Amino acid sequence: MRTRLSNSDVIALTAFRQALHRAPEVSGAEAGTARAVVAELMKSRPDRLLTGLGGHGVAAIWEGAEPGPTVLIRCELDALPILETGTVAHRSDVPGKAHLCGHDGHMAIVAGVARGLARQKPRRGRAVLLFQPAEEDGSGAAAVIADPAFAQIRPDLALSLHNYPGLALGQAVVRPGPANCASRGIRIRLTGRTAHAAQPETGLSPGPALAQLIARLPGLGKGGPVTDPAFSLVTVTHARLGEPAFGIAPAEAELWATLRTQTDAGMAALVAATEAAVAEAAERLGTSLSYHDIFTACTNAPEAVAVLRAALAAEAIPEGDTEVPMRASEDFGRFGALAPAAMLLLGAGEASPSLHNSDYDFPDSLIPVGAALFLRCLADQLG
């Protein structure tokens, strides 16, 4: 199995990517995006098409004539709840939402792989192209895996890529071992008792505890290079105290923070330290803790990295150099618990705005590069 995209393919996929960019949908709300993906995939005549996976997930399957492994290539459907400030002609038509992480480009790349599979199916095994929902909040991969229909596409090898600003355009980085940090959001609610602002001593304000935690929590992170297995980081992201009034001493406060570590074991230790700090600061208060956007650490399996590196060499895609693991998190790591898996970084340009910046736009020139990489992987593994 070996095929390449034509110039007309690249033109069509660029238009597809830019149409997705104009119509972003955030985690859990990707119904329209999924419909657009299905319409595009149907042009490539998959043997089977699964929809509604873990929410709005879509999987296209091409069957080989001979027994063999199942190779899954995954991309993401969701955009971000951020107002786009860029001036590209295809900028978001949805106020306050935009594809500022490049998932629109990832979808176009994998749609390009589908076009290649339409021309030449695998000789053996199965090629599965998964368009996964809800990556940005960490819930999508877990929901897809928990879906009973996932048994039909459970992989023997899972591959993905992420565009990476700061790395030269079209260069790639993939290494075995840690690829993305674990992270989770903690929401801390503190409850005391209101009082008249003229008599604050008759109430119980959570203000001092809130101030103490704002100052203390960042210090629980050890910092250091992300390459150090002991790396950890706590970032306070939101705080609220009482009501916007001058006559009331407050009774309630809320604090949000993001915990980040290189390893899952490090996350367990950081969670314990954070909960101990909350208990100490809020000894006289009512407390409620909840966790959100939970990402496990993402680790690249050596055998999956070898598949990607062989494809890079065969396609003459240059390897660059950048610090890994990424501080940012990725729920692709959950597939690594099921099969050898690896995520490759594909350079979006050294001068590119960063991911999640309000003016970020995926470089369309990466579409044929990413598609060629994955088609080579499938050819090597499935014949």
TrEMBL record:
What does the cofactor section's free text say about binding?
The Mn(2+) ion enhances activity.
Q: Which InterPro entries match?
A: Amidohydrolase (IPR017439), Bact_exopeptidase_dim_dom (IPR036264), Peptidase_M20 (IPR002933), Peptidase_M20_dimer (IPR011650)
User: Is Oxidoreductase among the key words of this record?
Assistant: no
Q: Which residues form the Peptidase M20 dimerisation domain?
A: 184-283
> What SUPFAM superfamilies has UniProt attached to this entry?
Bacterial exopeptidase dimerisation domain, Zn-dependent exopeptidases
Broad enzyme group: hydrolase
Instruction: Please provide an example of a Pfam family that matches this protein in its UniProt record.
Output: M20_dimer
As cofactor, the record names:
Mn(2+)
The reply to whether Manganese figures as a keyword in the UniProt entry is yes
For Mn(2+), which residues are the binding ones?
A: 101, 103, 136, 162, 356
Keyword list, A-Z: Carboxypeptidase, Hydrolase, Manganese, Metal-binding, Protease
Show the GO MF annotations: carboxypeptidase activity; metal ion binding
Enzyme Commission number: 3.4.17.-
PANTHER family cross-referenced by the UniProt entry: CLAN MH, FAMILY M20, PEPTIDASE T-LIKE METALLOPEPTIDASE, PEPTIDASE M20 FAMILY MEMBER
Protein name as annotated: Peptidase, M20 family, amidohydrolase
